[in-house]
Amino acid sequence: MGELRMSRNANSNSLQMMAGHVDQDRLWQRHLDMASIGATALGGVHRLPFSKEDAESRRLFLSWASARGFGAEMDDFGNIFVRRDGTERTLDPVVSGSHSDTQPNGGRFDGIYGVLAAFEALEAIDDAGIATRRPIEAVIWTAEEADAQFGVGCLGSQAYANPSKLPKLMEIRNNRNIPVKQALAELMEDHPRVGHRAFKSPIAYYVEAHIEQGPELEARDKTIGIVTAIQGHRSFKVQVTGEAGHAGNTPERLRKDALVAAMQIFSELRKVFHDPSDVIRFTVGEMDVVPNAMAVIPGSATFTIDFRHPEPEALKLLGDKIAVVARDNAGPCDVKVSELRNTSPVAFKGIVPETILKAVENLDYSYMYLPSGAGHDARYIAEMCPAGMIFIPCWHGVSHNEAESATLYDMTAGTRVLARTLVELANL
Amino acid sequence: MGELRMSRNANSNSLQMMAGHVDQDRLWQRHLDMASIGATALGGVHRLPFSKEDAESRRLFLSWASARGFGAEMDDFGNIFVRRDGTERTLDPVVSGSHSDTQPNGGRFDGIYGVLAAFEALEAIDDAGIATRRPIEAVIWTAEEADAQFGVGCLGSQAYANPSKLPKLMEIRNNRNIPVKQALAELMEDHPRVGHRAFKSPIAYYVEAHIEQGPELEARDKTIGIVTAIQGHRSFKVQVTGEAGHAGNTPERLRKDALVAAMQIFSELRKVFHDPSDVIRFTVGEMDVVPNAMAVIPGSATFTIDFRHPEPEALKLLGDKIAVVARDNAGPCDVKVSELRNTSPVAFKGIVPETILKAVENLDYSYMYLPSGAGHDARYIAEMCPAGMIFIPCWHGVSHNEAESATLYDMTAGTRVLARTLVELANL
Q1: What is the reported pTM?
Q2: How far B231 CA lies from chain A's nearest CA (Å)?
Q3: Looking at this predicted complex, what is its ipTM?
């Protein structure tokens, strides 16, 4: 830690100076060092949860902490907390961070930016010699991107905020039939040892920086997004079963074409989910036809529905219509609708977004309020403490994609806002 | 060959006796032996064109020919002709057969029944000691079912009837980017050697027996279908390109959802191709979405259209509308329509269907006239000689499916009609 200690009532000048200590070259170098772990040929990152690359990213993070003299603790799910102490050691910490794992062939910014911003904030505060009442911590949450393999994401933050879920989480299996328990044990074997932290250890305030993963900030030319909420999220699998048959010989009246029925259901659902205010997010992302051959009438067609909305009522009302619409539009086919996920919305209100706003205004960045369409670890940590999120723009809203990109200007701006927010919160 | 030789003017009695020589137990045993090659757990057959199983079915066929003392020849595309000589060796042969390959997870009857019926007819004629003027041959055409992998079917019969197509056919690539040339070379390596036959060697008459692959014979309780025509057939690939994006963050107004556009195009095409008289055959059999992930807006969606009609005018008029409808309904996406196939209808008229009718009447089977919705090798061989087809019923019209089924009674009836037809034609 730096030798200079300022009064805990850091005034506006010292905060301004601290923002100046956010070092964009250091931030970028660390960004590059992280991006090299699991780097793909197309400029993305393939660093799956629990993988060797995941472990490697954690070793790098801990080596930075160690070089800086920051302490570190880890809980039994591998969530790592790097700590800069406060002047009042018994107070609960202010925590900031995100995840270091990625989607399959994902990008270099999703998740890891929030970790780098938090660590850079810790260093800038330290470089500025600012003392805070509360400790400030930078966290890596384990397996945020687990949904691609395990069908469920944010495993680490869910376990931390609500350890009663653990037995269930541990048994979830990935697409190679390996349970979370085993994948986690393998990660732990390869993991550097640090002090132990109990699940649900209190957190005073939580702030997560993240790329937007959507197009709004770029489209409206804003540097900072103050996140108002994380949408609720329901997802469904719709399995339509018809009868395969010869495309040349089977007359229309005798067909049970599963793709025709799937299309009819999709088309009706589009009408039900049409929203002139453009708040509803309704996506059919997967469609699998069997046997998927040109001259064969589809015998089955299975598709997924991803539906998100910030309001619990709309989430329930519209989501519950899916099975009804599917049944009413399946024609001569059978249809089965299963719900894969039902996560309620979380609003970010009060002190954390208010403090972010104050930081943005003091630093004079352009900003807007917006909800997050994606889920984040903040969704679960918000169940245990006041929380909020800072978004920065990303190129064309592209994310979960190797082409994901953000500018160093925006990354630095987000880190400055974060550092200032953390100091303010740590002095409350 | 049998030792007894009858006069070439086989009378009605000898023909009736010959029909009695069609041996249903032998036919069924050979059916089972063939069905064991590439057998699937669900009772179907997976014997893809050019595969090891394809080669194995040919070895079995040639072993039967060899055991019986029939000669065999093969052309450079692997089409195999097993021959029972006629009394006048310089005359062109009467040829009958079909294919031994199958669709992916196809049935035990499609194609192979025509091969087995032709071979059984040769044996029955031989067992009855009937001499014919012309040679009679049983043929396996190569790669009839190639459309599932290569997008084009009936490769062997196309090559035989029109070898000028060969350079183009050889370059067609399958879904693993392997050209026909290479797949054929691999089949040939594994193939038993027989005498060489030149492409386009003349055929006097061609008769193909096949399961109907449609529901009409069963629905009308007829044993034999005399095929009047093979429908014209156009097929298309529609490639819709949008932009992948995060399902939770991208508002509707900024989306370029390729699956939504594909669905819209499909839906409009269904209206254009709606036909109260139920003659039009319009099928979307393949749909491939990229990246096909639940939380990602589809960046591309590619689907195929299989369109068949017995009338050339309808085929042109409606087929030509596809690209227009696709462009008009692609919304914010780009769309590219490529035509994969344009085969004009072929009518079966004159001596071959007339001889089939005579055989059916003499054997006193119930029958009806009907067009074929499916393409068959007979479609191409009809370009070089008079041709016709005999259909037998199949269960519920199900085909290109592991559940495909036909009764031994109908298989035997079709073989008796075929044997009698072949003898009559071989004495013309």
Answers
A1: 0.75
A2: 8
A3: 0.78
